[in-house]
Amino acid sequence: MKRMLLALVLMLAGCDESMDGQNRFHTYDAAGSVQAWPGPSEELPLVPGTVPQGQAAHDAALSTPPPASDALLARGQQRYGIYCAPCHGVDGTGSGIIVARGFPKPESFSSPDLRAADSARLMRAISQGSGRMYGFAEELEPRDRWSIIAYIRALQLADSRSGR
Ligand code: HEC
Asked: To bridge 61 with a disulfide, which of 85, 104, 142, 161 should be the other Cys (CB 3.0-4.6 Å)?
């Protein structure tokens, strides 16, 4: 019994080799004393010409609108309702619930300015934000961003027909 206890104590002692105590690099520290490290930081610099996996497909999806369809428009209406309507309003005039609580009112999508805006400008606003509006790159896949743009076009068309 005593021997077993001793073995157990020794085994447990072996587990105390804390990883905190080991030599290691800290990602963004200066390379310091490391000789011949390729960059000033301990994070290895990317090899020139490196393209992250999937980046080319992502770029293509951002620059090429998917073909218009009822399904795309329906998706756009749904995503718009979730992500944009709280500020821009269900009708796109800027009368959302967040604006009613004091957030600055965006201009209507049917303003001459935004009616004339090309898709690249709308895509930039959705992806990176614009002025006081934050971007939605994290929340919306490129295809979803295009679906919202299609829906904004539909709102603009409906407004021009109703003369709003
Ligand atoms: C939290 C409120 C808020 C949300 C949510 C929001 N916006 Fe905005 N948006 C604004 C405001 C405010 C402006 C005007 C920016 C300014 O004047 O600072 C704006 C401006 C814009 C513009 C005009 C950009 C330009 O080039 O002039 C577009 C397009 C736009 N928003 C689209 C969207 C879309 C699409 C969504 C949903 C994916 C969205 N916004 C979600 C508040 C919001």
From this structure: 142
Candidates 72, 152, 81, 74; CA nearest to 114 is: 152
Under-50 pLDDT residues of the chain: none
Residue in this structure with the two tokens 């104590």, named with its chain if needed: 9
* Residue among 79, 82, 84, 88 whose CB has most ligand 1 atoms within 8 A, to mutate: 88
Contact residues of ligand 1, CB 6 A cut-off: 83-84, 86-88, 98, 103-104, 106, 117, 121-122, 125-126, 130-133, 136, 148
One-letter amino acid at 84 equals C
Tell me how far apart the alpha carbons of residues 164 and 157 are, in angstroms, rounded to a whole number.
10
> CB count, 10 Å around CB of 55?
10
What distance separates the 2 farthest-apart alpha carbons in the chain?
Answer: 93
| Whole-number average pLDDT of the chain | 88
pLDDT value for 41: 81
How far apart, in whole angstroms, are the C-alpha atoms of residue 82 and residue 84?
Answer: 6
